[in-house]
Design brief:
- This protein is of the alpha/beta class and 672 residues long.
- The chain has 4 domains: 1-42 and 142-171, no CATH class; 45-139, Beta Barrel (OB fold (Dihydrolipoamide Acetyltransferase, E2P)); 244-431, Rossmann fold (3-Layer(aba) Sandwich), CATH 3.40.50.300; 442-598, P-loop containing nucleotide triphosphate hydrolases (Rossmann fold).
- The chain has 21 helices and 20 strands.
- The protein has a 7-stranded parallel β-sheet, sandwiched between helices. A 6-stranded parallel β-sheet has the order 15-20-19-16-18-17, sandwiched between helices. A 5-stranded mixed barrel has the order 2-3-4-6-5.
- Bound molecules: adenosine-5'-diphosphate and magnesium ion (MG).
- Magnesium ion binds next to helix 9.
Length: 672
């Protein structure tokens, strides 16, 4: 194992510059490199001639670069076009938004191209993958394509992988003996690694993927086992020393629902027992999880402990800070908010008071798990919207206390087996009832030609004293582009149909104080219409807002649409969700339809499953399991169950270095 942990500089061709680039991608040592699996593969055994192309299809072309030039499109996009000559004729190759390629691609070079055919007379290809070939290169038929960064070509990746496999594979640990491999139906690990990078055929890839997914799940289970070995440690006992909880309850402006009362009883029983609590609190958006958390925190405080609540975004942390302070401070509980944007003075003040037990409840973002944050007596750690956090961050928070109880809150309906596999041993509490008087949100899909009608609708509700959200689409998986879309829409609306109305703009790249300012203006009703990106997605709670208009709703997944819609329908007033969309696929039509007919997160989760298939099951990517590189907890649920069994046959202590290499726990502040 030690050799595998050698720095990547040990490889030929990796100097300081490349190792910096690799480090940026999270690749520090040979082990990390080997676990950087291809994003996809190209089958180059077939190459097409410019004469045989079909518009709209993907094609592979090999030829020689004749000329190359760069220009800009009308929309300001950079366009690079090259004339490629090949035995069967010439073809124009086009790259978008990669101006730097002008320094890489030169005339006279032999080049392999893959992309979509846009035209046939004359032939034109929009390139998605390319590679410059040496004059003598034979092109292997199945070629891995890696996620990469500017400065490392696919060719370099292949050379690095080839080298790493040749020189280090023999050091790679094999966890399973041949009997176990046979029992679980998996191939050897070394064979798997070689084949995942350079599969000779589809079957080799399938076998390799299976073993590596198994391996990953196995290591993941061993990590959980280690963490839960901690759980058998005696936990602390919460025993109330005063009537704080009763006072907090009495001061609530509403009566708890039966479901809330039930889960509170479950949580309290755990807290009173000497076992460490490890409980997942599930409840659809708007079910009222926050007050449950606040009561659990009150119980911790009444028992002489401190409590902490960690939320995934700053907006959410700020909001929780306010809501929880409202619930608790009247009864004498001292709360504080710590986020990345607390000033140095605030921070040191808060840290001091936390360490000396003057602050009872600390609420914040990842800032809570940074070094320097210490509690006098942390008794309860609450983690909101767990799917945004990884195992590491959870462990980092509980490590701030001496085996505190943990409560994890989520709106995602995770099936029980999946939850167990993902989080280890935990208990589950479900709030399966919304507060009374809520009217289901009326949801309507409108095509873009009815856009004006949609905005008029928003106006009507504003006139009636309500407020609205207008959420911008995810343009690309790029924050800057999302941002641009929101800014443009904001300007367009402010100077157009909503001239004279109070609009606000909220997006992820604003400074935290600005965000806070906008949110508070929206909360106190000064801003009527909040134009926003999906920063608003989780948890935000403004009861007077009753219209949620989602632009380009076809680009959102069901889970996201449901989360977004959950921002309205938070009072007894009728709320509306308008989905402005241009659905091009059956899938997106089905999604919009599902949103129109149901408000139930569990039902929608099932729909999502049947629309998209298990591969993309509802929010798997969000489960905090984005640490998994190759296994997919829903697609591989059977494999996951086997890995869970298998992990019990092994001694995690024997494989500690290996487990650590894949799932480090120490660097608690790293975010995913
Ligand atoms: P979520 O479960 O999505 O986190 P919240 O905790 O934000 O939901 O609660 C949603 C809204 O419902 C909040 O405005 C909260 O004050 C309110 N609420 C919670 N419980 C009740 C209740 N039992 N009766 C009435 N309103 C409630
Ligand atoms: Mg919430």
């Amino acid at each position: 194992m030690e050799r595998l942990l050698q720095k990547v500089q040990y490889l030929k061709g990796v100097g300081p510059q490349r190792s910096r680039l690799l480090a940026k991608m999270g690749i520090f040592n040979i082990f990390d490199l080997l676990w950087h699996f291809p994003r996809t593969y190209m089958d180059r055994s077939s190459v097409q001639q410019p004469g045989q192309l079909v518009i709209g299809e993907q094609a592979n072309i090999i030829g020689t670069v004749k000329t190359i030039r760069s220009s800009r499109s009308r929309k300001g996009m950079s366009v690079l076009s090259a004339m490629i000559s090949s035995p069967g004729g010439s073809i124009q190759a086009v790259w978008f938004n990669q101006p730097f390629l002008i320094d890489t691609i030169k005339s006279g070079q032999r080049i392999w191209l893959h992309g979509k055919i846009k035209n046939v007379l004359p032939p034109e290809i929009h390139v998605s993958e390319y590679e410059i070939l040496g004059q003598e290169d034979t092109v292997p038929s199945i070629v891995p394509i890696y996620t990469t960064t500017e400065g490392i070509s696919q060719r370099v990746w292949r050379l690095l992988m080839d080298q790493a496999l040749k020189s280090y594979l023999s050091d790679y640990p094999e966890i399973l003996n041949s009997g176990q491999r046979e029992h679980y139906g998996v191939c050897g690990i070394r064979e798997a690694l070689a084949n995942i990078h350079f599969p000779l055929d589809r079957n080799a890839y399938v076998q390799a993927r299976k073993r590596l997914a198994f391996e990953e799940l196995l290591l993941f289970q061993m990590r959980l086992l280690e963490l839960s070995a901690e759980d058998t440690h005696a936990g602390l006992i919460h025993r109330e020393k005063n009537d704080l909880v009763q006072r907090v309850l009495a001061a609530l402006p509403y009566k708890l629902t039966a479901a809330q009362q039930r889960v509170i009883a479950e949580i309290f029983a755990d807290m009173e027992s000497p076992r460490i609590m490890n409980r997942l609190l599930q409840g659809d958006v708007g079910a009222g999880k926050t007050v449950v958390a606040a009561l659990a925190m009150a119980k911790a405080v009444a028992s002489g402990y401190q409590a902490a609540l960690m939320a995934p975004t700053e907006i959410l942390a700020i909001q929780h800070g306010q809501v929880i302070n409202d619930i608790l401070s009247g009864s004498g509980v001292k709360t504080a908010l710590l986020t990345g944007s607390s000033t140095a003075a605030q921070r040191s003040d808060i840290l001091y008071q936390t360490q000396h037990g003057e602050i009872d409840v600390l609420i914040g973002t990842h800032a809570l798990i940074q070094e320097g944050v210490a509690f006098e007596k942390l008794g309860l750690a609450v983690i909101d919207e767990q799917h945004r956090f990884g195992v590491r961050q959870r462990a980092a928070l509980t490590a701030k206390g001496d085996h505190p109880d943990t409560l994890i809150m989520t709106a995602t309906p995770i099936p029980r087996t999946l939850a167990l596999t993902a989080y280890g041993n935990l208990e589950i509490s479900i709030i399966d009832q919304l507060p009374p008087g809520r009217k289901p949100v009326k949801t309507k899909y409108l095509p873009y030609k009815a856009r004006v009608q949609a905005y008029r609708y928003v106006k009507q509700e504003i006139m009636a004293g309500r407020q609205a959200y207008i959420v911008c689409p995810l343009v690309e998986e790029s924050e800057t582009q999302d941002l641009q879309a929101a800014v443009n829409l904001y300007d367009e609306l402010r100077n157009g149909i909503f001239t004279g109305y109070e609009l606000g703009l909220l997006h992820g790249q604003m400074r935290p104080v600005e965000k806070e300012e906008i949110m508070s203006q929206f909360k106190n009703g000064k801003i009527k219409i909040l134009v926003t990106t999906t920063v608003i997605e989780v948890g935000v709670d403004v009861a007077n807002a009753n219209v949620m208009l989602i632009e380009h709703a076809e680009r959102f997944g069901l889970s996201q649409l449901h989360q977004l819609r959950g921002r309205v329908g938070r009072s007894s007033v009728q709320s509306y969700c308008i989905l402005l969309a241009e659905p091009h696929t059956d899938e997106s039509k089905q999604r919009l339809r599902a949103m129109e007919i149901s408000n139930d997160g569990f039902y929608l989760a099932q729909q999502d499953l049947s629309i998209r298939g298990p591969g993309d099951f509802w929010g798997v990517r969000q489960h905090g399991l984005d640490q998994l590189k190759i296994a997919n907890l829903t697609k591989d649920l059977v494999l996951a169950e086997k890995a869970r069994q298998c992990s019990r046959e092994l001694n995690p202590l024997d494989w500690q270095n290996y487990v650590n290499a894949r799932f480090p726990v120490s660097e608690g502040t790293a975010m995913n």
